[in-house]
# Entry
Amino acid sequence: MGEQLNGVMMAAIKNQQDANGLIEKLLAVAQPGSIFSSPVTCGEHTVITASEVTVSMGYGFGTGGAGGDKQDVAVGEEAATPAVTQESGYGIGGGGGGYSGGRPVAVIGIGPEGVEVKPIVDETKIALAFFTALGSMFLMFRKMK
# Structure
């Protein structure tokens, strides 16, 4: 039983280290260098892009237990079914995942005329939002009738 418990603990430590590595990688995206690009200069004009960065993550871990003793386990519901001797044991599990993404939202232009911020409009998102709202209104009006 002591060896099984040691194995579970070693796996738990390794999974915790993996989780910490995952968190570090995902949070590395949300740095100021990810939000603003390096300035690009051409003559008297400098351009910097600003981005929206999204990071989400999740992590889970499981463990197990039991005594390691042999138990008689009945197979089926009938009393005549012979019992099977089964050794109880340990279990372990873990997992994690995440998502990070970014998209440009504005261009910052610096020139002799001053600073100018131009938003980047995503027509696809606007169209999807429009048709989703239109569909929701159609369904609402249909139910109201």
Notes: Residues 2-27 form the longest helix (26 residues). The radius of gyration is 29 Å. The chain has a mean pLDDT of 77.
